[in-house]
Design a protein that fits this description.
alpha+beta; globular; Acetone carboxylase
């Protein structure tokens, strides 16, 4: 997932939670990487609402994938981008 703040005609500006079936606005960015397939500095992003943050963090933590959780406004601009 690549995040952008540039307006486009075909992209809804609301960032939605990555929780299955959730349509709530995301308030958190869960930065993660799978060390088996990603370089150590690479960060993928899952978005979470307040209700799904803990569940998604637990899922990533159990797999040793979670690196950091930050407010949506603090997600690094290059997070989710391929090197």
């Amino acid at each position: 997932m690549s995040l952008t703040t540039e307006p486009t005609d075909d992209l809804d500006e609301t960032l939605m939670c990555s929780g299955k079936g959730c349509r709530a606005e995301a308030t958190w960015g869960l930065l993660w990487n799978n060390p088996k397939i990603h370089t150590p500095e690479r960060r993928k992003v899952w978005l979470a609402c307040d209700d799904h943050r803990e569940h998604l963090e637990l899922f990533l933590t159990l797999r040793d994938f979670l690196k950091q959780t930050v407010p949506v406004a603090e997600i690094p601009p290059d997070a989710g981008a391929r090197p």
